[in-house]
Amino acid sequence: MPSRPDTAGPAVVECDAGRITGTASAGVRRFLGIPYALPPVGARRFGLPEPAPAAEVAADAFGPTSPAAMVLPEPFTYPEIPGDDWLTLNIWAPATPGTGLPVLVWIHGGSFAMGSTAQTIFDGTSFARDGVVFVSVNHRIGVEGFAHLPDAPDNRGLRDQICALEWVQRNIAAFGGDPARVTLAGESAGAMSASALAVTPHAGSLFARAICQSGIAPAYPADVAARPALIAAERLGCSPTAADLRRIDPREVAAAVAAVVSGMPPHRQATLFVPALGDLLPERPDRVLARDRAAIPMIIGHNAAEADLWCTPGVFPPDQSEEATAAWIAEELGILGATPEIVDAYRGSSGQPFVDLVSDGLFAAPSLRAQRGQGENCYAYLFSWPSPLLSRTAFHALDLGFALGNLNDPAFRLHAGTAPPTDLRDAMHGAWVAFCRDGSPASQWRPYRDERDLHVFGPRATRNVELLEAWG
């Protein structure tokens, strides 16, 4: 018998994956650390994910975290959980079992190099209380998941996500979810993942909708995607191959890359790990979405001042030479469409030229192109609420607490202060719940045709469309 919604105790589900025992309290069942694939270590390291066999699972704690190749300073550090079983997922569901509930599968961000589902901001309680089954997915990150290696399949982290989505299709009905009503969502690298899987046939019909918060994926040639492996190999004295790296502990490899990355300016760190062009992504997802309508409805948006989280306001970076900055723009943003003329246009603009350049190149311009490409298949938004802390703008990841309904998360309050507006949370989180449920986020939010249909979360704001169009 299921426990009463207001009582605490075990929660047991029998499904294709086995007998899963989680916990129930305060109206929500929680199943944490469920393996969806075998640990990607030993002979399986750098290989394709292998689905986990059915088993009895004590799902009462988050699974181990994939080795991070980037480290944030205190107090913004991410939790690290030891162990090799990185490929796990977590489920939050209403305490009273139902049937046919909408499902949201969440992919965390972190520049494809850090982060995990154990971050408290990704708690799915708010969705479960609103009648949505919430699933968060751990996948391989850093060198393990995204560095190009000549003797291993590319985009291993994306392939992990596909494996997790296949697990959801086989099992989520036992938790009350409808496998035909799965929304894939994420922020930053998680949004880039969702956009990439929206255009690859390898993901097939594994989800029916997608939400991309601050991220539309590019995909880079093998030589660019190989840079993290080259860094690791040089630091460790080996060749940048799976065969050589497999002989070195994964956390040692991640630490070697992190030691080098820590000396890079933050804006360079953000573009080091990238999806690679290849059989999974034969064409860049951002270009596909700009040209062809996906088979599913999407919410696509970004924040008003994304790069304020990393960049020095007002000026081009003072911590590196003009030549180094120019080289980074040519190498990284050049791939995204930056030309000398575009750079000059930002230098001559008012406000924060380098912040605006990075924000637009990495987030705003790709989002606009995808919104236009998807047209009435897409709901477009701009998040504009300015934090009272840090840069006092709507910087990268500030939207998370509002969209996920977690304003009280301690880590979020380091960015948003102690009194973020609850009405904005209700509006944004409510729109996400409605989109999962019905495919339409709100009655007053129209599908995108032009900037008049841009939905703004926060103070009234507009985009410099003419400048964004210059990116191509």
Written description of the protein model:
- By secondary structure, the chain is an alpha/beta fold.
- The chain contains 17 helices and 12 strands.
- The termini are far apart.
- The protein has helices at about 125-130, 140-145, 155-170, 190-200, 220-225, 225-235, 240-245, 250-260, 265-270, 285-290, 320-335, 340-345, 355-375, 400-405, 410-415, 420-440, 465-470; strands at about 10-15, 20-25, 30-35, 55-60, 90-95, 100-105, 135, 175-185, 210-215, 300-305, 380-385, 455.
- Helix 10 (about 285-290) crosses helix 13 (about 355-375).
- Strands 1, 2, 3, 4, 5, 6, 7, 8, 9, 10, 11 and 12 form a 12-stranded mixed beta sheet that branches.
- This is Carboxylic ester hydrolase.
- One of its GO terms (molecular function) is hydrolase activity.
